[in-house]
Design brief:
The protein is an alpha+beta fold and about 575 residues long. It contains 13 helices and 28 strands.
């Protein structure tokens, strides 16, 4: 990837929309945090600010709080449309380079580290004691800074009144570190290179320099970053959730680790996310079900950050405007903060708990509980001739062999690559990919079916290899035979052992810990169950439901095994049943 592409990513993943401006009313500070480490902070004031006390909105960012021209030292416009929108509505903004990044001091030993979380308390405490603060604080962000917005609640600082996590991580191991237990170098490698350039202030690659604090350039701070971990190198050495990533276990590096502290904070959240954005939808629904914070959720059909539409029923190979629109997303955020930080009643408490997009119907639905009322879990059994039926087979020896085809792909614009700023495209016609996989399809439906929730796949299978991965894609097939991607699940087979977890009711749970991992026994039948990413879709009358099974996604996940070509045997008989379980709303 070229430096130009990375500069594009810098703008895209750390902002809401293009259209940068530079506020003239900005002050820069170094504020001491944990162990006295100085963090760089920019404080922006509304254009017509007249020394009144106002609430402060924070963004704790991994992607530079600001930029400057490396030749002249003059600031480069870096406020995006969302930032400007808040300033125009009388909020003070605080942009912070998290520890070990940008112009901040310190060394990064992990992403989202517990130390970084504790740093935020010091920043908030400093801010609310300034003469221009009214003592109320909110936090917002997209992607990395969306996660830090939620993690701010873990500090339990009393000034924090509301947060808006956007397209944020929840369980860092499952998304984006090692989805399905697998390594996705296609995502991790460019992201690792990009953040390393940022940390080292690599002007020649980024075409800009980090914004200084005061008059002097922060050479001493950047020098400390030389000891930062290299993300890709670290991740290749940590295959399990309880593996050490720098100074911490991976399972210590996400909001899930701080469940108790975040819930006890009782800070209201507006959670913006998308069905097709990596694993953020699953994290959103788990948070909604198991964290005590007052929450309002908007589940969109968009790319990462809400930039473009992603429904395979509306989008082919060209970008389509998102829903809600950019301006509607802006107003949602403003109304939420106005309600909780300015005590202007915007009716937020009357919003539905969750407003979610329904594919196929191509419109939004809403519910005050999750799962929605009336959900039933219905099994569809794999059968002979590639059929998928509601009754199981009476065969005694039914089985299908599949030689793994490592050319299978979901393309380069999928739910995983969108986290690097790409639009989601070309999921509207999966027939060519289906031809490379093992597929099972229902007869055309005589009545429409509403699927809403988390599908589950249970396969009795054997493999000719000890190592391997398996992917299952859920698809809609229209009357013409055209198949469309709905969602997917997968599993590195060494993680097939099931464990118990109170957060997963009726859904198979895998710990991804080293103690539960083991190689497959060659040619031995084993039951392998795993979840697919949640979704909501109306399968129309005359359409069919399909699952497609593969052992690879070449443009996203690293090849497993690295050598050899496994043959997977899928059993579908009276003794060894294999089935898809769908969450259906009657």
């Amino acid at each position: 990837m070229t430096a130009k592409n990375f500069l594009f990513i810098l703008f895209f993943v750390s902002t809401f929309q293009f259209g940068f401006s530079q506020a003239s009313n900005v002050d820069s500070y170094y504020i001491p945090a944990v162990n006295g480490t100085k963090l760089a902070v920019d404080v922006y004031f509304p254009e017509k600010y007249k020394n009144q006390k106002l609430p402060v909105l924070f963004e704790f960012t991994r992607y530079w709080r600001g930029k400057e021209d490396p030749k002249t030292g003059k600031p480069i416009a870096s406020l995006n449309k969302l930032d400007k929108y808040f300033l125009d509505h009388d909020y003070i903004l605080a942009k912070v380079d998290v520890r070990g990044t940008g112009a901040s001091y310190g060394v990064r030993t992990a992403e989202y580290s517990p130390t970084e979380v504790k740093d935020a308390w010091y920043i908030v405490d400093w801010m609310v004691n300034q003469q221009w603060s009214d003592g109320k604080v909110g936090a917002y962000g997209t992607s990395y800074s969306g996660t830090t917005a939620e993690l701010l609640c873990a500090t339990q600082h009393p000034a924090i009144k509301a947060v808006i996590p956007g397209w944020s991580d929840f369980d860092v191991y499952e998304s984006p570190t090692r989805p399905f237990g697998m390594l996705a170098t296609s995502f991790i490698a460019p992201w690792s290179q990009y953040v390393n350039w940022l940390d080292q202030n690599s002007v020649e690659n980024l075409g800009a320099s980090v914004r200084r604090v005061g008059k002097d350039f922060p050479m001493d701070a950047i020098k400390e970053h030389e000891n930062n971990i290299i993300v890709l190198e670290a991740l290749t050495k940590v295959p399990y959730k309880d593996s050490k990533f720098g100074d911490f276990k991976i399972e210590e590096l996400d909001p899930l680790h701080w469940k108790k502290e975040i819930s006890e904070s009782n800070v209201p959240m507006l959670v913006l996310t998308s069905w097709l954005d990596a694993g953020t939808a699953e994290g959103t629904l788990l948070r909604l079900q198991h964290f005590d914070n007052p929450q309002k959720v908007v589940m969109m059909p968009t790319s990462h950050g809400g930039h473009s539409h992603a429904s395979p029923f509306l989008v082919s190979d060209k970008m389509v405007a998102p829903v809600p629109s950019v301006n509607e997303q802006l107003k949602l955020r403003l109304d939420f903060f106005d309600h909780y930080l300015k005590e202007n009643d915007k009716g937020v408490e009357d919003w539905p708990t969750i407003k979610y997009y329904n594919f196929g119907e191509e419109s939004f639905k809403q519910s005050d509980i999750w799962p929605p009322k009336g959900q039933q879990r219905i099994q569809y059994f794999l059968d002979a001739n590639g059929e998928l039926n509601t009754s199981s087979s009476d065969e005694h020896l039914g089985m299908d062999e599949y030689i793994v085809d490592f050319s299978v792909s979901t393309g380069s614009n999928n739910r995983w690559t969108t986290q690097m700023g790409k639009h989601i495209l070309n999921l509207d016609n999966r027939n060519a990919a289906d031809s490379l996989m093992l597929t099972y399809t229902t007869a055309p439906l005589v009545e429409p079916i509403q699927i809403t929730g988390t599908p589950v796949i249970s396969l009795n299978l054997s493999s000719t290899h000890k190592e391997g991965g398996i992917f299952v894609y859920l698809e809609d097939v229209d009357p013409s035979g055209k198949s469309r991607y709905i969602t997917e699940g997968g599993l590195l087979l060494e993680h097939r052992k099931l464990s118990k977890n109170d957060m997963f009711d009726k859904i198979p749970y895998h710990s991804f810990r080293k103690s539960d991992a083991s190689p497959m026994s060659i040619d031995k039948i084993e039951e392998v169950c795993f979840k697919l990413h949640p979704t909501s879709i109306l399968i129309k009358k005359g359409h069919s439901i399909r699952i497609a099974i593969s052992g690879a996604d070449k443009d996203t996940f690293d090849k497993v095994p690295t050598e050899g070509i496994p043959t997977l045997s899928i059993y579908r008989n009276k003794t060894n049943k294999s089935f898809l379980e769908l969450p259906i709303i009657k």
